[in-house]
Amino acid sequence: MNMHHTTTSAVSIRQKVEYTGDMANPSGRGAIVDMSGFSAVVILEDGRTITHPIKLIRHISERQGCAHRILALDEFATAAEILELQAAKVALESVEKAEADAKATAYQSQVERLKAEHTDLVPASDRNAASKNIRKMLKAAFPAVRFSVKKHGYDSIGISWEDGPTADAVEGIAGRFQLGRFDGMTDSYEYSHSAFADLFGGVRYVSTNRAYSDHAVQTAIDMLVTADQAWVPSQPGRSLYLRPFMIATEASLGFYRPAGEYMFVVISSPAWTYFKVVP
After folding, report:
1. Which of 6, 47, 105, 216 is the most exposed place for a label (fewest CB within 10 A)?
2. Rounded CA gap, 46 and 42, in Å?
3. pTM for this one?
4. Are 258 and 238 in contact (CB under 8 A)?
5. What whole-number distance in Å separates Cα of residue 203 and Cα of residue 174?
6. pLDDT by residue for the chain (279 residues), tens digit each?
7. Alpha helix positions (H), the chain
8. Cβ-proximal residues to 232 (8 Å cutoff; 6+ apart), any chain
9. Pair 84, 92: CB distance under 8 Å
10. What distance in Å separates the CA atoms of residue 15 and residue 54, rounded to the nearest whole number?
11. Could you give the residue ranges of the DSSP H alpha helices within 21-62?
């Protein structure tokens, strides 16, 4: 690594800097330890290494909130301080490697356990395998219910059924095949590494749609009327107002399609006389 005092543009090797950080990375201080081409290599005091375009580095006097990530200070690190930064970098890399090795070992152990537990599932990581395996698992869990499992668009699967188990119960099975979630704050998809999806298939989105038969709706109304029978008016012309309705509960943005998840609700209220009562 080139450690002589070299000046390029407005910054130099060994010049101390401040890193302003961002939503995912904390701020810190360090120094420029190398320059190559159009980039400067910065090591922070906690061992993190950042390669940053030289032309985007500004002097501390030009600070504008977090508009510039690397701000050059009017101080220069000594040779001893540079060695301390390099030692912190090596120590951090050692910790990160140990953590990565531990995760890899745990992941492999999980893979072997899942293989032994799910010998009936199709071993593949694509959407087709996910669709087939969802059908298998739902049939095993709810043998009396007929499920429709269909692939939608490029990377999603929709599951629909009538009456039967709750949406939470179905999502507890099908959700294992979802590769992550959409983050509305950053307008991006966040993947979560899953040994299960790697082994038996995965898609970005899994949606559920539980329909209700006329019998189920009538049963819900009967149960509500029974529970609230004390509120059923007995005077002539008065009645009990009933309203079955559904509310979309799917976490999504846009108006390009109907919701794939919703809640069925029945509400009731005593109603006053609207029309003249004829004896």
Report:
1. 105
2. 12
3. 0.63
4. no
5. 10
6. 444 444 444 789 999 999 998 888 999 999 999 998 899 999 999 999 999 999 899 999 888 877 789 999 999 999 999 999 999 999 999 999 999 999 999 999 999 999 999 999 998 888 899 999 999 999 999 999 999 999 887 789 999 999 999 888 999 999 999 988 887 777 888 888 789 999 999 999 998 888 889 998 888 888 888 888 777 777 777 777 888 888 877 766 655 555 666 778 888 888 777 666 555
7. 79-117, 127-141, 167-174, 195-200, 214-227
8. 225, 240, 270
9. no
10. 12
11. none
Q: DSSP assignment, residue 203? A: B
Token reading at 116? 């032994």
Dist. CA 59–CA 171, nearest whole Å: 53
Length of the chain: 279
Which residue's entry shows tokens 């704050």? 185
Tokens found for residue 139: 């049939």
What is the token pair recorded at 210?
A: 């539980």
Please name which of 264, 243, 261 lies closest in space to residue 252, comparing C-alpha atoms: 261
